[in-house]
Design a protein that fits this description.
- The complex is a heterotrimer of chains A (896), B (96) and C (123).
- Chain A is mainly alpha-helical and 896 residues long.
- Helix content of chain A is 69%, strand content 5%.
- Chain A is built from 36 helices and eight strands.
- Mean pLDDT of chain A is 78; it is low at 151-158, 368-374, 536-547 and 847-852.
- Chain B starts with a helix and ends in a 14-residue tail after the last helix.
- The longest helix of chain B has 32 residues, at 11-42.
- Chain C has a five-stranded parallel sheet, sandwiched between helices.
- The longest helix of chain C is centred in the N-terminal third of the chain and has 13 residues, at 12-24.
- Chain C is an alpha/beta fold and 123 residues long.
- Chain C contains five helices and five strands.
- Chain C has a single domain, classed as Response regulator (Rossmann fold, 3-Layer(aba) Sandwich).
- Classes of the chains: A mainly alpha (896), B mainly alpha (96), C alpha/beta (123).
- The A-B interface holds A 67-68, 71, 75, 78-86, 226, 229-230, 234-239, 241, 244-245, 248, 273, 276-277, 279-281, 283-284, 287, 291, 294, 298, 533-534 and B 27, 30-31, 33-35, 37-38, 41-42, 44-45, 47, 49-50, 54-58, 60-61, 64-65, 68-69, 71-73, 75-76, 78-79, 82-83, 89, 91-92.
- Chain C: Residues 4-120 form the Response regulatory domain.
- Chain C: One of its GO terms (biological process) is phosphorelay signal transduction system.
- Chain C: This is Response regulator receiver domain-containing protein.
- Chain C: The modification 4-aspartylphosphate is found at residue 53.
- Chain C: Keywords: DNA-binding, Phosphoprotein, Transcription, Transcription regulation, Two-component regulatory system.
């Protein structure tokens, strides 16, 4: 027989191992190896805190007492896990995107961040959890006593009390150390989760070991075991239909609502995807946990004395057979079940208590100083530690006061019905946008009161109601009898409490929601929760400090633009001496950021936004980001409009220009028609006049006759040339001109043009032509006659229009990347800006006062150059009129 | 019997559609699983309590655990299939 | 004494033709070929009749005509407008400016002669 002290040593060694595991895991996580720590398996195992000492020891007891009923407690959660696609997936997504820290936070967050709701849920949870924690302490104590006394008989109460006390102290220390290691509630507890995963393995192994020992060691095989089962009291299929269904439902519901379950399911979820594995792996775990329960119960009933406590069969059965190893393993399994539950429950509850009760009170007491003095984190830390110790001690005190007599399973059920009061608000909140705060408060209050009155107070082992009150109702009001509400008697107390509390809770929740009107924040949150899959981009990282800064960065990017935001953050990080781009969210940085943002969105909004991310109230980050997105879209839209209007006005300008040009052209066309008429009529006048003279006048001298005849001759030639020009232009415009390509030198072409352009020059005003012949020694391959026609036109234009006293034309030849540029620049007034774009149009003449050509010259030049593959353009800013003739390179063969 | 035009016009589109469709039906199956489970585990309520017809504890255990194993197996298969990278969720239609 | 006629025209061949015709009829013909300096010429030697071309270098015939009508010493001088533009709007323009007669190029020699005679009746 193992000694009590030996057991203590084993126990301490086991606890030391847990400390080591937790410590190592935390160390690993700190070094950034959290990925390894957070596998789907660890997540699945961490869910096993559902199986507490109640299920470890109590399941066998329950099976021994009421047959298969115990199994419902596992079936409910299995169904919830199988149905992960419906509910858990959504819950986890909401938890991650809204940074939910607890059930209370979820409910409060959904209903407009109402702290009243958070407080209600917290109080309810603490009330429901306290007896449950007491139950765990009791189970450890009882299991110790089993060993201490070598059998299931009574022990000294003092030993039990002391054991419970020291266990409570030990658990409190462990939880404080590993549960509040990181200041932030959002931070996952790597050490704790790893420790409970190990404990999950221990308790499964223990139960399986006992089961195998019983089935193969004691009964002698599966078939023999089945025979034993059939032969025992359990042999008959005897379940209460209502309880069967009710228990499946309550266990499934509690699985979702229990603060500790919510902690591991949602808050500690490292990756949404882990849920996928857990959806089948956790039911499998539960199945393994429950598979040997009936055999152990049946064999225990057959082997052990009839006064043996069936709740302890798991321990006493191997012990009675002298299998001490199995017994010790079993003890450790029970110990694991109890401790892991207490640890996680304490963490979850302390988060709720400190966040929703202690902190609001402290902030109110501290007034405005709190946010400035910067010791908030210490306060949170202290609050959480104190809460943990208080909760564990509360459980101990409950155990001490109640004396730990009642059957274990009963307390579990009471606790379950209590926490399930959160269910209507939770389910309603995430699936129904119409759910309001008023409805949630009404449902929670009514459900909790009925639960307390009908189930908790009558059966917690502390005398609250007198026998008389139970039998006749308070003040003799029969319809208020706690266990026969509204006169409906004869129901199982559990079913009675469950039906009334949940039915009225749901009714009040629905009625309150329908009759009330939600606040804007509630409506926003409602939309966020219900449509979480449309709103959230996907799973997001949850690690606190940096993630917070990341949020700030995301928001800042949306307001300041990515470049500027990143630059700002990098600058701040550098200033703080932090590596990377994300600075710590220190107050001075936040102030800077707020100021930067205020420039874009105004001071009030900036303050609200930063305050929100860093830990304010009212509206959620996603909403603000959505708002920022919207304003970005708005800005983009207005920018687009602006661009469109700019485009429109540019189009309008172009249209106006085109119209102006058309108008000018039309005016010029009229002018040209007059001009052409003038140009035709002038020579014809001379011809007619002199021919009439020749015809009618007698007595003309031969000299006169010859002179007049030659005038007529000249004028006809002039007419012909004019007609040629017009024809030339029209032919070239139609592109039907054939080019006579020849090789020749540029200087020769220019010589000819200068000579021709000066023909008919009056002596008093002669055009001086300046050339640099050295640049003109270039061999061309082109239609030399057409080119010379262009040059002649330009030169005679200069002659005609240059108004300088000493007109001068400079001809410059230059190679320009791929072309040969020949510039003709005179020293006249040049061409007015508004006329430059029409001078190359045919019929164009700048003023009708200037006689000369018919306004076809430059139009012809342009056509010619186009045909030759070059261009002729007006060269502005030369002091006078400047024209540039560009010849393509292939036309210019550079001289060797 | 399929229209040749359709097969010509876009095999890749057809492929994608099929994948999305498959995934949707897998999601449907995942939704249905707990409903089936709940029915299966409520079946024992219909069993006779007494008399020769009443099943023994052994059979009851086998039935309940059998359902459990089958559900877990189906769940494992479904979750494995569903694990292939979730497509970027489009705005869900009313049908969903 | 022969009547004096000033021909303001820039086309040398036309000057020559008109001068020839009118000289033979006994007119004393002088010619001026710039619009800008036409008024000075007119004031210096006021003629009995003026033949004025519309398209002149420097200033248009219409402007010159307007100046003639504005100048009290010249206002009464009869003016025959010659234009190479035969449109009605040119005719209207000429009449408004105060032309006594308007003729379109190419003209008939006899018409010119008759027009000038009509403008300056023999005394």
């Amino acid at each position: 027989m193992i000694s009590f002290n030996g057991l203590v040593v084993i126990c301490l060694a086991y606890v030391a191992m847990l400390f080591a595991v937790a410590f190592t895991a935390d160390r690993f996580a700190r070094k950034g190896h959290s990925r390894w720590l957070r596998s789907p398996i660890v997540y699945t195992l961490s869910l096993s805190i559902y199986a507490t000492a109640w299920t470890f020891y109590g399941a066998v007891g329950s099976a021994a007492r009421s047959g298969l009923e115990y199994i419902t407690i596992y079936l409910g959660p299995s169904l919830v896990m199988f149905g992960w696609w419906w509910l858990l997936r959504k819950l986890v997504r909401i938890g991650r995107s809204q940074r939910i820290t607890s059930v209370a936070d979820l409910i409060s967050s959904r209903f407009g961040k109402s702290n009243l709701l958070a407080v209600l849920v917290t109080i309810l949870s603490v009330i429901a959890a306290t007896p449950y924690i007491a139950l765990q302490l009791q189970s450890v104590t009882v299991s110790f006593e089993v060993f201490a006394n070598g059998g299931g008989t009574d022990t000294g109460e003092v030993v039990g009390r002391n054991t419970a006390f020291w266990v409570a102290i030990g658990l409190a220390i462990f939880t404080v150390i590993f549960g509040t290691r990181n200041l932030d509630a959002n931070e996952r507890h790597h050490g704790v989760v790893m420790a409970i995963a190990v404990e999950a393995v221990v308790k499964l192994t223990a139960l399986l070991a006992v089961g195998i020992f019983v089935v193969w060691g004691l009964a002698g095989g599966v078939s023999q075991t089945l025979e034993v089962i059939e032969a025992s009291e359990l042999g008959q299929w005897q379940v209460h239909g209502g309880r069967w269904a009710g228990l499946i439902f309550i266990s499934g519901a509690a699985f979702l609502c229990l603060p500790r379950m919510f902690q591991v399911l949602v808050v500690e979820a490292a990756d949404e995807d882990h849920l996928r594995t857990a959806s089948w792996a956790f039911p499998a775990y539960l199945m393994a946990m429950s598979i040997f329960v009936v055999p152990i119960a049946a064999v225990g009933l057959a082997v052990l004395p009839s006064d043996a406590n069936p709740d302890l069969f798991v321990l006493t059965l191997p012990l009675s057979q002298g299998a001490e190893g199995v017994a010790v393993l079993s003890f450790l399994g029970g110990f694991s079940s109890a401790t892991s539950m207490v640890i996680v429950a304490a963490i979850a509850l302390s988060t709720m208590v400190s966040n929703h009760i202690v902190m609001p009170i402290w902030l109110r007491l501290a007034g405005g100083r709190a946010t400035i003095s910067g010791d908030v984190r210490n306060v949170v830390l202290t609050a959480r530690r104190v809460s943990i110790v208080s909760i564990v001690l509360l459980g101990y005190m409950y155990y001490a006061v109640s004396g730990g007599g009642s059957a274990l399973a009963a307390i579990g059920l009471i606790s379950f019905v209590g926490v399930v009061q959160v269910l209507p608000s939770m389910i309603g909140g995430i699936f129904w946008r119409g759910a309001t705060r008023t409805g949630a408060v009404a449902g929670l209050v009514i459900g909790s009161v009925i639960w307390l009155y009908t189930f908790f107070l009558p059966s917690i082992g502390i005398e609250v109601f007198s026998e008389r009150t139970l039998a006749e109702g308070p003040w003799g009001l029969g319809w208020l009898r706690p266990q026969a509400l509204f006169g409906i008697a004869g129901l199982d107390p559990f079913l009675h409490a469950l039906l009334w509390s949940l039915a009225l809770n749901a009714l009040a929740f629905f009625g309150g929601s329908v009759l009330s009107f939600p606040t804007p924040v509630e409506r926003l949150q409602g939309a966020q929760f219900v449509n979480i899959f449309q709103h959230s981009g996907g799973p997001r990282s949850w690690s606190s400090g940096v993630a917070q800064t990341e949020d700030l960065l995301i928001m800042a990017q949306r307001i300041l633009g990515p470049g500027e935001a990143i630059a700002l953050f990098r600058r701040e990080a550098e200033r703080q001496g932090v590596r990377g781009d994300l600075p710590e969210p220190r107050p001075d940085f936040l102030e800077t950021l707020e100021r930067e943002l205020a420039g874009s969105v105004g001071a009030a909004t900036a303050h609200a936004m930063v305050g929100q991310i860093v830990g304010g109230t009212s509206v959620s980050v996603q909403d603000l980001i959505a708002v920022a997105d919207e304003s970005a879209q708005l800005m983009e839209y207005s920018a687009r409009l602006e661009a469109q209007s700019a485009e429109l006005s540019s189009t309008a300008r172009q249209l106006r220009e085109a119209n102006d040009k058309l108008t000018r052209l039309s005016v010029q066309k009229d002018a040209f028609l007059s001009q052409i008429s003038h140009e035709l009529r002038t020579p014809m006048s001379s011809i007619r006049a002199f021919s009439e003279i020749l015809r009618d006048s007698g007595g003309l001298s031969a000299e006169e006759q010859s002179k007049f005849a030659s005038i007529i001759h000249d004028e006809t030639i002039r007419l012909t040339r004019l007609l040629d020009d017009i024809l030339d232009l029209s032919v070239m415009e139609n592109g039907r001109v054939s080019l006579n390509m020849r090789e020749g030198r540029l200087c020769d072409v220019l010589d000819r043009a200068v000579a021709a352009g000066s023909v008919g020059e009056s002596d008093e005003v002669s055009l001086e032509v300046r050339r640099d012949r050295s640049t003109e020694d270039i061999v061309l391959y082109t239609d030399l006659d057409r080119l010379s026609q262009v040059f002649i036109n330009i030169i005679s234009n200069a002659r005609k229009y240059c108004e300088a006293a000493k007109p001068r034309l400079t001809i410059r030849v230059r190679e320009q990347n791929r072309a040969l540029a020949i510039d003709f620049i005179d020293n006249g007034q040049g061409i007015p800006r508004d006329s430059r774009d029409v001078i190359f149009e045919k019929f164009a003449r700048i003023s009708d006062q200037r006689a000369g050509g018919a306004g076809l010259g430059l139009a012809i030049c342009r056509q010619v150059m186009e045909r030759l593959g070059g261009t002729i353009t007006y060269l502005p800013g030369q002091g006078g009129a400047g024209f540039r003739v560009l010849l393509p390179r292939k036309a210019a063969l550079a001289a060797e | 019997m399929s229209e040749p035009r359709e097969t010509h016009s876009g095999p890749p589109v057809y492929f994608l559609e099929r994948q999305t469709y498959r995934r949707r039906r897998l999601e449907d199956a995942a939704r249905l699983l707990p409903v089936i489970g709940a029915f299966a585990w409520l079946v024992p309520l219909l069993w006779p309590r007494q008399g020769p017809e009443a099943p023994g504890m052994g059979n009851a255990l086998i039935y309940i655990f059998g359902v459990w194993i089958v559900l877990a197996l189906i769940g494992a298969i479904l979750s494995q299939r569903l694990g292939r990278r979730e497509p970027p969720e489009p705005v869900r239609s009313a049908e969903e | 004494m022969s009547k004096r006629l000033l021909l303001i025209e820039d086309e040398p061949n036309i000057i020559e033709a008109i001068s020839f015709i009118l000289s033979r009829d006994g007119w004393h013909v002088a010619s001026h070929s710039s619009g800008t300096t036409a008024m000075e010429r007119l004031r210096a030697e006021p003629p009995d009749v003026v033949i004025l071309d519309v398209m002149l270098p420097g200033r248009s015939g219409y402007e010159v005509l307007r100046d003639i009508r504005d100048d009290p010493s010249l206002a009464k001088i009869p003016v025959l407008m010659l234009t190479a533009r035969g449109q009605t709007k040119d005719r209207e323009l000429a009449e408004r400016a105060g032309a006594n007669l308007f003729m379109t190029k190419p003209f008939s020699n006899t018409e010119v002669l008759e027009a000038v005679r009509a403008l300056v009746p023999a005394t």
